[in-house]
Amino acid sequence: MPRNIVTPSSTSDLDDRAKQIMADHLTAPFDIDSIPFELLSSLRYDPGLYNGTLPLAEAIQQMPLDPSFFFLLPYHAKRLNKAIDYFDFNIKHFTESLLLSKISEALASQDKESILKIRILAQRSGQVKLDILPETRSVAYDVNCGITYDIYLDSKPMTISPFTSFKTTHRNHYTEARVRSIPPGAENTDVLLYNAAEQVTESSVCNVAFWRDVTHPITGEVTSKWLTPPLSVGCISGVVRQSLLDSGKIFEGPISVKDLTDGEEVLLMNGILGTVKAKLIT
Fold first, then answer.
1. Domain enclosing residue 71, as ranges
2. Lowest-pLDDT range, 23-32, 128-137, 262-271?
3. Which Pfam families match (predicted)?
4. Phi-psi region of 185 (alpha: psi -120 to 50; beta: other; left: phi over 0)
5. Which of 24, 26, 115, 170 is deepest in the core (most CB within 10 A)?
6. For strand 222-228 and strand 200-203, is the pairing parallel, antiparallel, or unpaired?
7. Do 161 and 63 share a domain, yes or no?
């Protein structure tokens, strides 16, 4: 059964732990300029997503391509622009039309009948690069999808930083978490991360959500919802996460490590896979 996690005692505890994080981690200087990195957003091109009026064989020859070929394209532009502003990169904001034009040009020589993963990389100098890779995994956009992954609880907390709040190529912390927590050779796996206050944040490649009972603060009414950790815990603002929040399919709410149950379902979300479910292994 879902656990009710919205109680006065848990809120007070979270406030106290948040103050401790501020004291332990956020008062020390963080030298972003000393770390080489690029802004990153991974976009899915998929002919199976196309919903335009032209026949597919004709549509893949158009310039620019129909936006429906790209999974959640407007959300990628918004996410990149927020990162550009935060890190003060010398890049003009992406509009959906500009991003669509650049990507369409880059795909001109590609096999557009196949699924592709497009890594949008933006450098501080203003240069933008597109890496195009083959992709074979299917995409889903359904919170009721079946369990196809395992997710292992990390063995130590993740230190939050700008590199856990924004998607970049500086990912050592995620790689280290996967190495220490996922058994060697395991497939279709991920690692569940949490911060120093033992608040769940995300996985190494996905945002996450948990099925929880939520008590309305005024009426006392209890309803069950998919809760995804708020950005304040130090997680990335993923494109699928934001889309599902906008559509009212998931909601923000804190998830404490102490409330996790071995074997429970975890909803995973990212811009290449869409949504998948995982079984939690603690």
1. 33-134
2. 23-32
3. Aminotran_4
4. left
5. 115
6. unpaired
7. no
